[in-house]
Each structure stands twice: as C-alpha cells, then as structure tokens.
Amino acid sequence: MMRETLLEFDLYKAHVVVNLWKIIGWTGAALFGLRWIPQFFATRRAKKVTMPRVFWVMSVTGSLCLLSYFIGYRADSVGILSNLFPTFVALYNLFHDLRKGS
C-alpha cells in the first residue's frame, strides 16, 4: 500500500512517481528546511538569536519523517545515518525546552 503509485507524471525531463513513502519523505524535507523561517522571525522579533519551540517541533517531525522514509522505503544507510543524529539532538532540545516551560 505504501509503495502503491498514487500519481505519475513527467516534469521536464524527470519522470515523477508519487506514493505514500515519497509524500512522507517530501514532508520531512519540507519541514526540516522550512524550520528556519520561524527561527528567522523569532530572532528578528527578539533582536537576538533565538530558537522558538516550533523550530524544535519541526526538526523532530521532519527528522522522523525522513528517517522513516530512508528506513522503510529507501533502505539507505547514508540517509538513515544523516537523519539519526539530528533526530536525537532535536528531541533532546525539545525535551529541555518543554521542561523549562517557555
């Protein structure tokens, strides 16, 4: 079911196949990349470098999506290792942010 093709099309010279695993991977990549937008605005508002809680939530969610994509779909050790460490760091920081209650 997860590998079942939902949509298939050509985009310029690339052939794109969409399935649930790819949606999970794209969601993870988008969350992990876009997490810098709320960080940018929080830093501007505070007039000092700050990491808002949403940054850590997006980091954890994005990392877990990417980790599951690389484990469940790609079976890619490079992708697994490159997302394993950020997942633990983001979880650690989110835990401490929630603990301090800010």
From TrEMBL:
InterPro entries: Lipid_A_biosynth_N (IPR011499). GO terms for biological process: lipid A biosynthetic process. One of its GO terms (cellular component) is membrane. Keywords: Membrane, Transmembrane, Transmembrane helix. Residues 24-96 form the Lipid A biosynthesis N-terminal domain. The lineage of its organism: Bacteria, Pseudomonadati, Verrucomicrobiota, Verrucomicrobiia, Verrucomicrobiales. The keyword Transmembrane helix applies. It holds the Pfam family LAB_N. It comes from Luteolibacter ambystomatis. The chain crosses the membrane at residues 20-42, 54-72, 78-95. This is Lipid-A-disaccharide synthase N-terminal domain-containing protein. It comes from the Bacteria. GO terms for molecular function: lipid-A-disaccharide synthase activity.
